[in-house]
Amino acid sequence: MTEDDREEIVAEWVARGGGTSSFFETEAEAFLTFVSRRLDRPSHASSLCRFERAVIRARGASTMRRLIRPASIDSMVQRSPHADLVELHAPVEQLLEALAKTRRWPAICEGSHRLLVAPGIAGLVRDASPVEIALWHAAERPVPAKDYWPAARSLVACGALETVAGVDGC
Question: What is each CA distance from 43 to 46, 90, 167, in whole angstroms?
């Protein structure tokens, strides 16, 4: 993204009233949502924007005491609003080096790295397994945990998924 593009986005954000919240997480997530709508997809900028939004949500949830209903094999599960599956189009190390301007931006590679971001993961992020990726995509709406067991149990435990109250999975 060029410097002129960055300045234009920030100016538009401020003109629309952005930057007035005293709550960092709320303001940062709103700003990143605003910016992400103006970015090309796929791009490193859009992936990094989504990654940062996911980390903000997961970090905020990791500091809250929350009731986690453990998943049973008969429960229904769905995505947690405090988690995300983020696809980066190059190795993380290369993206960080490019951000630090110690290397050029790498080429876009589809499906390079899929990272699970959730409040109960040590460091908030880790690589997602193929079954976790499939479960994440399916769990946009409630799905039977038994169809993805034991991955469903693991993702509920780390806060990536939630059990659905009042829905019988039998």
Answer: 5, 10, 38
The answer to whether the CB of 145 falls within 8 A of the CB of 152 is yes
- Adjacent-strand bridge partners of 144: 76
DSSP code for 116: E
Q: Is 114 in contact with 92 (CB distance < 8 Å)? A: no
Exposure letters 63-75 (e unless 16+ CB within 10 A, then b): eeeeeeeebeeeb
CA 153: distance to chain centroid?
A: 19
Q: Phi first, then psi: what are they for 143, rounded to 5°?
A: -130, 155
Return the DSSP state at 106.
Answer: P
Contacts of 166 (CB under 8 A, 6+ apart): none
pLDDT of residue 65: 64
Whether residue 168 contacts residue 73, with contact meaning beta carbons closer than 8 Å, is answered with no
- The CA distance from 135 to 125, in Å, is 17
144 preceded by a cis bond (ω within 30 of 0): no
Rounded Cα distance between 24 and 102, Å, is 29
Tens of pLDDT along 71-99? 788 999 999 999 999 999 998 889 889 98
